[in-house]
C-alpha cells in the first residue's frame, strides 16, 4: 500500500506576528484515490459561479478568483466544508504553540519546518498507527509551492529518511519518501489541505468559528505536547527538542 499526504500551512511561522498558533494541515489518501479530485472540481466550479455570494470583500475588490480559505467569506467557507464531508480521505494537522517553543521558532526555517512535518508523519503513522504497520511501499508528500518559502524541497526527503529509517533502532519505516511541490490553484489535494490548515489556525487562534463546525480533524497533533496552551515558557522542553533537529 502507498499513501499520498497533501500539506499546506496557515499562519506565520515567525514568533513576532502576534499570533500564538501556527498550523500545518493535511489531507491523507491511499494512492490512486481520485474521489477528492472529482468532487473538488464541482465545489470550485460552484464557488466561482457564485462569486458575489461566496468570496469575501477583499477578494472581490482585488479580483481574486482562487478558491482558497483566505479568499472566501463565512458562507463560502461553510459551503466548502459541508461538501468536505463527502470526501473519502483523512484530515490531519499539527498545531504549534509558538509562545511555548520560542527557541525552536528562532531556528532556521528549513530545520523548523522539517521537524514539524516529521512530527506530523510520526504522529499519524507511528503513534496513532494509521497504516497498522511500517512496511507500506511509499509515502508521497505534496506541498504548495507558493506558501512554503523553502529551498530545494527543504531537504525534507533526506530528513525523513534520516529520522524515520536510518537513525531508528526499532520500528523503522520501510517506505520510500517522495516529496513533490504543486500549485494549489490546480492541485485539489493541496487545495483541501489549505482549508484544513486554515480551519485549525482559526480555531486555535480565535476560538470556534461560524464555519467548519461539522469538520473533525482525524489526527491532530499538538506541539509542544506537555506545555501546549500553557501560560509558561518551558525551556527544558525546548532544549530537548533542539537536540533532535
Word description of this protein:
This protein has a single domain (2-242), classed as Ribonuclease H-like superfamily/Ribonuclease H (Nucleotidyltransferase, domain 5). The protein is built from nine helices and six strands, in the order ββααααβααβαβαβα. It has helices at residues 35-49, 51-54, 57-61, 74-84, 102-105, 109-127, 156-166, 188-206, 235-242, and strands at 2-10, 21-30, 90-97, 138-144, 176-182, 219-223. The chain has a six-stranded mixed beta sheet with strand order 5-4-1-2-3-6. It is globular, with a radius of gyration of 18 Å. The two termini are 29 Å apart.
What is the domain total for the residues?
A: 1
Instruction: Round the mean pLDDT to the nearest integer and report it.
Output: 88
Low-confidence stretches: none
The CATH first-level class comes to: Alpha Beta
Q: State the distance separating the first and last CA atoms.
A: 29 Å
Q: What structural class is derived from the secondary structure elements?
A: alpha/beta
CATH architecture type: 2-Layer Sandwich
* Strand order within the widest beta sheet: 5-4-1-2-3-6
User: Looking at the structure, what is the overall shape?
Assistant: globular
What are the secondary-structure elements, in order, as H or E? EEHHHHEHHEHEHEH
- Tell me the number of helical segments per DSSP (H or I, 4 or more residues long): 9
Percent of residues in beta strands? 15-25%
Instruction: Please name the CATH topology.
Output: Nucleotidyltransferase, domain 5
CATH level 4 superfamily = Ribonuclease H-like superfamily/Ribonuclease H
Please tell me how large the radius of gyration is.
18 Å
Q: What's the count of strands?
A: 6
Q: What characterizes the major β-sheet?
A: 6 strands, mixed
Amino acid at each position: 500500500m502507498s499513501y499520498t499526504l497533501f500539506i499546506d500551512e496557515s499562519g506565520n511561522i515567525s514568533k513576532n506576528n502576534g499570533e500564538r498558533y501556527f498550523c500545518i494541515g493535511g489531507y491523507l489518501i491511499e494512492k490512486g484515490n481520485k474521489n477528492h479530485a472529482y468532487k473538488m472540481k464541482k465545489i470550485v466550479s460552484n464557488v466561482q459561479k457564485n462569486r458575489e455570494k461566496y468570496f469575501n470583500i477583499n477578494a472581490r475588490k482585488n479580483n481574486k478568483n482562487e478558491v482558497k480559505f483566505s479568499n472566501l467569506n463565512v458562507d463560502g467557507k461553510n459551503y466548502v466544508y459541508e461538501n468536505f464531508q463527502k470526501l473519502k480521505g483523512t484530515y490531519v494537522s499539527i498545531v504549534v504553540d509558538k509562545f511555548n517553543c520560542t527557541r525552536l521558532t528562532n531556528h532556521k526555517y528549513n530545520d523548523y519546518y522539517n521537524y514539524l512535518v516529521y512530527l506530523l508523519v510520526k504522529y499519524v503513522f507511528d503513534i496513532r498507527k494509521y497504516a497498522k504497520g511500517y512496511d507500506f511501499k511509499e509515502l508521497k508528500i505534496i506541498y504548495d509551492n507558493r506558501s512554503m518559502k523553502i529551498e530545494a524541497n527543504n531537504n525534507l526527503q533526506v530528513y525523513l529518511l534520516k529520522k524515520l529509517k536510518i537513525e531508528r533502532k526499532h520500528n523503522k519505516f520501510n517506505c520510500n519518501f517522495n516529496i513533490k511541490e504543486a500549485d494549489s490553484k490546480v492541485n485539489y489535494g493541496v487545495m483541501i489541505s489549505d482549508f484544513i490548515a486554515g480551519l485549525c489556525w482559526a480555531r486555535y487562534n480565535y476560538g470556534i468559528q461560524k464555519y467548519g463546525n461539522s469538520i473533525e480533524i482525524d489526527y491532530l497533533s499538538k506541539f509542544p505536547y506537555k506545555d501546549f496552551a500553557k501560560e509558561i515558557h518551558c525551556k527544558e522542553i525546548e532544549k530537548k527538542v533542539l537536540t533532535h533537529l
